[in-house]
User: Fold this.
Amino acid sequence: MTTNRFGDTVVLTGRSLKHVTRSLDTILTTAVTPIAMMLLFVYVFGGAIHRGSGSYVAYLLPGILLITIASGIAYTAYRLFLDLQGGIFDRFHSMPIARSSVLWAHVLTSLIANLISLLVVVGVALVMGFRSGAGPLAWLAVVGILILFTLALTWLAVIAGLSAKTVDGASAFSYPLIFLPFISSAFVPTATMPGPVRWFAGNQPVTSIVDAIRDLLAQQPPGSQLWIALIWCVGIFVVAYCLAMVSYRRRIR
Amino acid sequence: MISDAAVRVRGLEKSYKDLPVLRGVDFDVARGSIFALLGSNGAGKTTVVRILSTLLRADAGLATVNGFDVTTQAPDVRGSISLTGQFAAVDEILTGRENLVLVARLRHLRDSGPIADDLLRRFGLTEAAARAVSTYSGGMRRRLDLAMGLIGNPPVVFLDEPTTGLDPQGRLAMWQAVRQLAAQGTTVLLTTQYLDEAEQLADRIAILHGGRIIVTGTLAELRKVLPPARIEYVERQPTLEDVFLALVEGDTGSGGTAVVGGGTDE
Assistant:
């Protein structure tokens, strides 16, 4: 059964990747908004916000990457919702395949599509003057955090896709996630924020993840922020996965 | 007789919240036969099919498919069946051929390519093979749906309202395909709301009403339920279907328009 699960997941991932490659606009629209924000913040607001040493692109990039992921995973909820509506989900479930592979295929597709979008965004950042002297190990850690964050948010998207009543509902859940980086250290240091906002910004997941990635890329020891970031990612991943399984079981009964 | 049943259902019950849909359904489907489950919209036909294809769990009762219990041996049941749905469950973005290859791969068959090409030919979809399914007509989609269901030659096939929404020709083609399937020894359980469809295709017919099977038997047996036929003399007019099929099939793309009645309207 284990070999089946792996083989079935590969076959079904191939299927949903074709959905992505045949509507490349999903990758582009995922990347366009974060790129526009990056341009806006660097070339319009940047002069006013810039906090001294280092380039603002480098400061901004980690938050922009998280926004990219938050808008990318909405497509997972959308595709999953359409599979449920169209009946192909039922067809797969009435076939002698490993049932878990149906959801994992969507999750892996989300991971691959988001990594491509992230590459596009990093490419634009390089053109805008972003440079990092980080070694392979630090980059590996950054990629690892981004993969974990994508997986965690994708399982949130799976919950939305499984429980939504309409197409709009399936993707609307990502808007608060896209907004979350604004109330964090992604664009400006939290020190300038008023008390309660600063407390929220300091204790929500985006700040620690952004700080950890920023330190890694700037060749500084990330310290405790890295561990807090990892705990957030793994925590969201586990909780979202369990809730997704609950709504999945409810759905197939 | 009963031990030979491909599908066996006893005392099946299912409620959605407080609404009872099935209140004790019993029937048997003999191997290699075509069995029609007849009922109006909302009678619970789809619910029966979803329980038999392990997509839904019954509240009470027993159901076996190909000798396997749908609750305790669900993977074996899934290995014995295929389900083609009322809302053709095909992938819109993939091409017709890719849909077939996908199912063949998921059934762990080698030679998924040749299997797909063979089915495309049998169902008259070779020319459309490389087109995305979103460009297909309703009839083509339904044929592809059925073709996907035949991959791996499952011994039991469930067809949930196979001709709903099809034009008369598509309907006849679907009937033909179902007959061929039964001729090869496949057991077919189909649900329908069309009386003539059950009459045309089924070896046995069961009428599902009010959550129970109120009558089951062959067409001849069902006829005996009513008072014996009276002989009446009726002038047999061609039905609209006869006219439609005669006109459409006679005219194979010549572009001509048949004018009926001869009236010039200027």
Notes: Chain A has a mean pLDDT of 87. Residues 2-252 of chain A form one domain. The first helix of chain A runs from residue 2 to 21. Chain A has one domain: 2-252.
